[in-house]
């Protein structure tokens, strides 16, 4: 028999192509169709952010599945968790009530959204806000509340989530493993 750690790492690495091919195709098509910034560097950064988003999401699924060990319960909890993360992330609701505003710091979509907006718009970029009047993009209310500027901090937060969810999943599998199979 294989050790749990060997199986777990092999399974994660083996799933990578399957997990990353379809999002790559999707982003490649929708990026250029959506009229986003026509720059190869920006496209590659957007693709990398989206793939990182997929991997963090997969980690949440692994962790919830390993903790609950029941497909129906894990699916229900994952749906609710993703909904909370999406709502708290700042994309749909810009001004969260103060008693739940802290949730955005646990939402991977919050960091991905900030990174995607930060990649698309430079600090000094302007847009025509009124006839003949130009305003800075960073002063637009929806972007101002994102507090852009610390992209490496956002990458670090996503990295912690990426590793953390996988460690939680591994530990849940390790703890849930029958004692006779532990080595």
TrEMBL record:
As one GO molecular function, the record gives:
ABC-type transporter activity
Which Pfam family is one of those matched by this entry?
ABC2_membrane
Q: Which domain of life is it from?
A: Eukaryota
* Localization of this protein: Membrane
A cellular-component GO term for this protein = plasma membrane
Which residue ranges run through the membrane?
Answer: 12-34, 40-67, 74-93, 155-173
Chief location of this protein within or outside the cell: membrane
- Could you tell me which residue ranges the ABC-2 type transporter transmembrane domain spans? 1-121
In the bilayer, the protein is annotated as: Multi-pass membrane protein
Alphabetical list of PANTHER family matching this protein: ABC TRANSPORTER G FAMILY MEMBER 21, ABC TRANSPORTER G FAMILY MEMBER 28
Protein name per UniProt: ABC transporter G family member 21-like
Taxonomic lineage of the native organism = Eukaryota, Viridiplantae, Streptophyta, Embryophyta, Tracheophyta
């Amino acid at each position: 028999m294989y050790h749990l750690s060997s199986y777990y790492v092999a399974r994660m690495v083996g799933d990578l192509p399957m997990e990353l091919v379809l999002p790559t195709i999707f982003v490649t098509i929708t990026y250029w169709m959506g009229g986003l910034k026509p720059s190869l560097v920006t496209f590659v950064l957007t693709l990398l952010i989206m793939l990182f988003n997929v991997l963090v999401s997969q980690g949440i699924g692994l962790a919830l599945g390993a903790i609950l060990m029941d497909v129906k319960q894990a699916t229900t909890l994952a749906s609710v968790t993703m909904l909370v993360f999406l709502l708290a992330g700042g994309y749909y609701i810009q001004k969260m009530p103060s008693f739940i505003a802290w949730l955005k710091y646990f939402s991977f979509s919050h960091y991905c959204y900030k990174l995607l907006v930060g990649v698309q718009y430079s600090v000094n970029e302007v847009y025509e806000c009124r006839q003949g009047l130009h305003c800075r993009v960073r002063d637009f209310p929806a972007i101002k509340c994102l507090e852009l500027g610390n992209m490496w901090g956002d990458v670090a937060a996503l990295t912690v989530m990426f590793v953390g969810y996988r460690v939680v999943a591994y530990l849940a599998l390790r703890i849930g493993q029958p004692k006779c199979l532990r080595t």
